[in-house]
Design goal:
single chain, alpha/beta, pyruvate-formate lyase- activating enzyme, binds iron/sulfur cluster
Amino acid sequence: MLEQINARSIFSPATGFIARGGFDWTCNPYYGCTFGCIYCYAMFLPQNRRPREDWGRWFTAKANAIDLAQRHGHKVAGKAVYLSSVTDPYLPAERGLRLTRGILEALIPHQPRLVIQTRGPLVVRDLDLLRQFRAVRVNLSIPTDSETVRMAFEPKAPPLEKRWEAAEAVRSAGVAVGLCVTPMLPLLNPDAFVARLTAFAPDVLVTQDFHDSGGGFGADTGTAARRLLTERRWTAEDYRRIVERLRERRTVYEGEAGFFPPRK
Ligand code: SF4
């Protein structure tokens, strides 16, 4: 059953690493996230009061998101907006609900500097709107080259090739693309992955090490993922080697340093 609420606001002042990166506001059309990445920090946040084991099984739509964006869009005029910080703006439900699309339409007159952060190829649907922003970047998360690994860590998120196709489409539309290998998950063929990232030449490339926190906050792993990590003997040295190889070829931002708004 679709759960909807009327939210008090649709733009929230940026906090944490998003604020440190230079964003002024965040925008989340949904609570929860049906992509259900098992390392997602959002499941630990106070607004997501459901049991952690239910993460990925629920979402709540902010039914009045578009109305709020129309009424309060002036607050974010010219400011840096991160969409989204604790959900994915292109969940499968967005296809029918069109909340993210409505928010984008409402924002065009106000021209915020916008980063769209997503794993959802559905973002290509809105390229007609995104092209109307003077400063916008679509960050697509592509944390591995292995569908087996993706299935273990991001079981309900879109297949990796669909994300690469979306990245191509975004770039073809003349919109800046960020590729986020965050967190970098075990790789099947590191050489080929480095070559592919380099050849794609995203406007911004971000990497981040995967931390197996053993049950602690963030970047945590479930049993299947933990088994995969052990089998593949994926270590911090593997990560470091890949970053160094990328750095021989292009600029790489690591972690928080990579999450900054598009320049004017
Ligand atoms: S897509 Fe983003 S918000 Fe959704 S579960 Fe994955 S990391 Fe969390």
